[in-house]
Specification:
Among the domains are: 86 residues, no CATH class; 110 residues, Serine Threonine Protein Phosphatase 5, Tetratricopeptide repeat (Alpha Horseshoe); 49 residues, no CATH class. Helix content is 69%, strand content 4%. Helix 6 runs antiparallel to helix 7, helix 11 runs antiparallel to helix 12 and helix 16 packs antiparallel against helix 17.
């Protein structure tokens, strides 16, 4: 018996006598046990060493999956893959369902760990890579809603790498193109979104999704959102070069004054350099032109808070909350408005709600500590 150098929780052993009969029962025409290849087993949590008398399939399968994940191209990786699939032929559906459940519960790291294990077993599966991108994207959205923009950007960058690989597949993977299109819309990269949807439409047989894709392409074209100046403006503002971004979006608005997205982008840039009144005007123009999103109401509220219009800010935040009832960023801002209005008890209630929705939110924890037992 020897320990794996990559993890002291994995031990390699020869096929034990106690399991050889069971292993022979699962060996079929496509898989044969090779006694010369040692079997990795994972030491169960809470134990210091492997108990051979209580060795189980779960320990062996877990050990093999760990080894594959550590070294997908290792000498014995393919053998371990075939071994796992022989023992657990339903592992793809079983693990996929488990990952989806974990993601729904907000346990994104565990969901990604499960999907990474599947990716080790099925390295050529585009659906697994797409699920990893979707989990990363969902996790990024949760951080964005909580106001943790840097972490959201980091996760979106990782999701982008997966999408980039998926949309280059030949033959194309239509589900990846559809989901990538909406991912790029959230990144304000309408040119790339249009490309994905345009490629998706002739491939798909799903009439509902095709109609949705066509509608998005039509909207992008009608509003000229794939214009290079729009994309450049967004990139400049996101990277902290707000003045250059504002200049670019002004150039876009000269040609397309009725595009609410552009007014939102202008307001975002102005708000970031603390031009509160100008930002307010831009966001109100976005609302006037049909951009009544949660983000628009929330951003407008931020400008109003800085101008001491607390009643107006509260109205905008309540409008935002109707659109996204569990948006912790909006609920936190309602707490700040209540605090500035002198209503500490109401503020504490808002911050407690944030903590219930996102126990890791540092802003809510800090305010609750300051407010004490209210």
């Amino acid at each position: 018996m020897k320990a794996n150098n990559s993890s002291n929780r994995i031990q390699f052993l020869s096929v034990p006598e106690s399991l050889r009969g069971q292993i022979e029962q699962i060996a079929g025409d496509d898989f044969y046990i090779d006694p010369s290849i040692p079997i990795p087993a994972e030491i169960p949590a809470g134990q210091d060493k492997l108990d051979l008398e209580n060795l189980s399939w779960e320990m062996i399968i877990s050990g093999m999956i760990r080894v594959i994940a550590d070294d997908p191209e290792g000498d014995d990786a393919n053998y371990y893959r075939r071994f796992v699939l022989a023992v657990k032929p339903d592992i793809l559906s079983e693990f996929s369902e488990a990952a989806i459940l974990k993601a729904r519960n907000g346990e994104y790291d565990i969901a990604l760990e499960i999907l990474a294990a599947l990716h080790g077993l099925y390295p050529d599966s585009a659906s697994i890579i797409l699920n990893m991108a979707l989990v990363l994207e969902e996790n990024a959205d949760s951080h964005e809603q909580a106001g943790r923009e840097k972490e959201a950007d980091r996760l979106n960058e990782k999701a982008f790498e997966y999408y980039k690989a998926l949309i280059l597949l030949d033959p194309p993977y239509e589900n990846a193109l559809f989901n990538a299109g909406f991912f790029f819309i959230k990144q304000q990269n309408y040119e790339k979104a249009k490309e994905c949807f345009s490629r998706y439409i002739p491939l798909s047989e799903d009439s509902e999704k095709k109609a949705k894709a066509r509608a998005v392409v039509k909207e992008i074209e009608s509003r000229s959102l794939d214009d290079i100046e729009f994309r450049e403006a967004y990139d400049f503002i996101r990277m902290g070069e707000e003045e250059r971004g504002i200049e670019k979006i002004h150039e876009f608005l000269v040609r397309h004054p009725e595009v609410w997205n552009a007014w939102f982008l202008l307001g975002w840039g102005l708000r970031r350099i603390e031009r509160w009144e100008d930002g307010e005007k831009a966001f109100r123009k976005a609302l006037e032109l049909g951009g009544g999103t949660c983000d628009t109401h929330n951003e407008l509220a931020l400008c109003l808070i800085q101008q001491d219009d607390l009643q107006g800010a509260r109205q905008e935040l309540e409008s935002a909350l109707k659109l996204e009832p569990e948006n912790t960023k909006v609920i936190s801002n309602l707490g700040i408005v209540a605090l500035k209005s002198g209503n500490d008890a109401e503020a504490a209630a808002f911050f407690r709600t944030v903590s219930e929705l996102d126990p890791t939110d540092p802003l809510a924890a800090d305010y609750l500590e300051r407010l004490g037992d209210i």
